[in-house]
Write a structure and sequence with these properties.
559 residues, alpha/beta, Beta-Lactamase, Heat Shock Protein 90, Rossmann fold, five-stranded mixed β-sheet
Amino acid sequence: MAWLVDIARRLSETRDMSSLALTTAEAARGLLGAADSTFILRDGHEGHCVEQSGPQKMWKGVRFPLEGTVTGSVILSGVADIIPDIRQDSRIPSSAYDPAAVQSILVVPIRRSQPLGAIVVNWNERHPADEDDIAILHALADITSVAWENVRLLEDLQDKVKGLEAQRVRIEAQHESLEVFSRALAHDLKEPVRTVRAFSELIAKGEDPPELRDTYFDLIHKAADRMAMLVDTVFQYTQLDDRSRLNKRAVDMDETVRAVIGNLAQLIRERGAVVTAGDLPTVDAHGAHMMQLVQNLVSNAVRHGPVGVEVRIEAKDLGDQWQFSVSDNGPGLASNDVERIFLPFKRLNLNEEGAGLGLSICRKVMALHEGHIWCDSGYTGGARFLFTLPKPGAVTPEVTANNNRASLMETTGRRLANVLLVDDRDADLELTRVLLQVRDRLQFNLIMAKGGKEALDKLRQAGRDQEPIDLLLLDINMPGMSGFEMLEELRKDKSIPPVAVVMCSGSTYEDDLKRAESLGAAGYMVKPPSLDQLKPMLAVLPDLHLDQEGRDNRLMHAA
């Protein structure tokens, strides 16, 4: 009974189907002293062996028809079945089991009404299962069915939250584009319209000398060109809101740069510029967007650099992503301009003829590709722009936080808090991020670690040459080093700067809460996490402050 209670606790804390299957299979084998156990889920008219516990995992991943099989009949009927000796049961084909390794079998449905699967245990010796064996396995199956429902609901919730987040991002992007369009109508487009109207009226009156009319027509022509350029640029900007248009393919960046140099050939000749590139990779991206991105960056460098400016394009392999650089030997940028230049309609020079949307378009392109673009403020040889593109299959959960970080520092004068989230399960890491940063709209710099040892390494690294970690969200039940063990190690290591710790666990045991308090944890948050749970803990932490503005929340490190 004590073992079942512990298994029930562990199953209640599972957040994904693979963990549930493995925990159940191992529990069945241990509870009944079996040689092997298999967790099977129903998939239409088939059974799917999801997980197997034992020395030989010959069944894992196998699918079989429910009709005409012993396990299938248990799933279809909801009634357990006992096979004392497979060699004397005609329903068991000789090829299904090795008689030398398996002799007795017990199959119990997972949920007796409309079973969703079955648990199968095997013994090497003759073991006719008795009522106690059946009752124990039924109890485990009932606990598993409840945990399965929780996992399914959690997965549905994650999918819905991700869908809502995607919808929120689309709405915000559309709102931003609407503001850009409104700004263009209210200000930038009115300027060339006024020019055309004013000089047209002068020509119509005929009061000025005839030789001025050619000048007036030339100014009208230039104003019309600018109006067309503004309309085209704003249209390009708004089109980047539609993710359905993002058709990625293999894009050879060497070819892209050659095409850009060809497009800008006249400008490059006029400015006496030199544009070179190193060996560039092939990336997974939208071809036209990459052309637009590189052309905007190169064009800016040539237009705003001195005559004879040299522009260099290079790429670096960072493992899960490519980092590109476009650098020049021009005058560079002031430190307070490196972020402002990405804002819509921000032009640094009075004589600029562009729309002021070029770098805003670049940032939109990178956001669409889950990449990041920024100006290297530490570059002293001129101006250098860097952008990253994830490789196919790479996960970049921190892109949004990184893109917004500089602008948040500019508007608040303080830095966002650095939060280290420690959990061994990918699903829990992602769910915590989504619930806090997306659902609760809490902004902070998120760092993740999949275990206590990795977290301690990150804390030590932050103490040496990076901004310190301000808050630690720590799971308890982790393999290798539990959350409590990590907390004990953390308190002993004097090289790690003091950090506020909040336990983040599915456990509600009183002993766990007391132990967390005794080890100096500032709070205890029960999964799933929420800002409402976190607020009272933040109120007593002097170095952290919660800024709230409407629905948005920012976790700031106290200046």
